[in-house]
Amino acid sequence: MRPLVLSSILLSAAFLVGCGADNIQAPSPSARTPLLERGTGGSEAAFDFTAIDVPNALFTSATGINPRGDIVGTYVDGSKRSHGYVLRDGIFTTIDFPDAAGTEARGIGPSGEIVGDYWFAGEPAENFHGYLLTKEGEFVAVNYPEHTNTILQRILPDGTMLGCRHDGDFMDTMKGVTISRQGYAEIGQLASMNNGATPDHRRIVGLYINTAGSQQGFLIDDGVFTPLFVGNIPTTAAWDMNPAGEIVGVYRNSAGVHGFVLRADGYTSIDFPGASATRAYGINPRGNVVGTYATGKVTHGFLASR
Questions:
Q1: Which of 57, 73, 175, 188 is the most buried (most CB within 10 A)?
Q2: pLDDT at 113
Q3: In b/e form, how buried is each residue of 210-233, taking b as 16+ CB within 10 angstroms?
Q4: Phi-psi category of 232—alpha, beta or left, where left has phi over 0 and alpha has psi -120 to 50?
Q5: What is d(CA 166, CA 190) in angstroms, rounded to the nearest whole number?
Q6: Which pLDDT score, from 0 to 100, does residue 207 have?
Q7: Which of 305, 273, 279, 283 is nearest to 292 (CA)?
């Protein structure tokens, strides 16, 4: 793959038409079912870790990985501008949405399609717009109808995209969304984001702000919304799910911030060796995980391989 900047082509067409919001059941105020209540099976010993740093970057994150092992994320350059990137066969390729002041890459599909968000100079700080970068290198603007902002997190094998939409008040109007060839759908829970799903769309994971004001993960299984958190720790976020139903995310306890992977036999904490904080954001069908870790005041991306 040639190391070039993918910023030359803009496909300025309406991506989808029509808007049909399918509301999924939200949790009742008393719903407190912990899905990560089983014990941890270990930590960094379960993985081989590789650091990911874009050359000369001030900040690097890794947020998505596909079956082939291609990785996407975001980096900040020396002028403090944000760019997306894809790491394929050991080569970093920068992703900049045309004329944008900043770009983030968040998810990558099996065929190499990439989704993320961008923003323009002069806009309010909370404004984000979604995009799809096709495997042919064409940018497609993706905006949820009748709302100011769209953030895209994942793209599934059939092209379905997941993320959230919101307006100027941000969290007060944010809802997790699904965008597919059938149209647009959103969940009923406010302050939510859809972050991952199985290819058949029957299981979706994400995060929301609960009634106590804490960030919490969720699992939607055949339309039923259930809170998801590690043991009795409410500060949890679910960030991705692979076809086998394995979930990755982040939780915070008195010892700090940790990543996790949840499988059928329970959850495993993910802590990059020597890091002060670790966050797991993406998982592929092989069970390989990507995320970020912090050393001092510097954030790096990582790949954790089985």
A1: 73
A2: 98
A3: beeeebbbbbbeeeebbbbbbeeb
A4: alpha
A5: 10
A6: 96
A7: 279
From residue 277, alpha-carbon distances to 74, 137, 173 in Å are 18, 35, 30
The phi-psi region of residue 156 (left if phi > 0; otherwise alpha if psi is between -120 and 50; otherwise beta) is beta
pTM value?
A: 0.87
Which residue ranges form the domains of the chain, and what is each CATH number? 10-305 (2.120.10.30)
Q: What is the per-residue burial (b if ≥16 Cβ within 10 Å, else e) of 15-40?
A: ebeeeeeeebebbeeeeeebbbeeee
| DSSP SS3 for 6 | strand
Cα–Cα distances in angstroms (integers) from residue 254 to residues 123, 220, 233, 260, 269, in the given order = 37, 28, 10, 16, 14
Residue 211 confidence (pLDDT): 84
Q: Which two tokens stand for residue 292?
A: 């970020």
Q: Is 150 exposed, middle or buried (0-12, 13-18, 19+ CB in 10 A)?
A: buried
Distance CA 41, CA 43 (A): 7
pLDDT in tens, 55-97: 999 999 999 999 999 999 999 999 999 999 999 999 999 999 9
Compute the distance between CA of residue 238 and CA of residue 251 in angstroms, rounded to an integer. 9
Tokens of 207: 């995060």
Question: If pLDDT is split at 50, 70 and 90, which confidence band does 43 have?
Answer: low
The residues, any chain, with a CB within 8 Å of residue 303's CB and separated by 6 or more, are 49, 50, 52, 62, 65, 71, 288, 289, 290
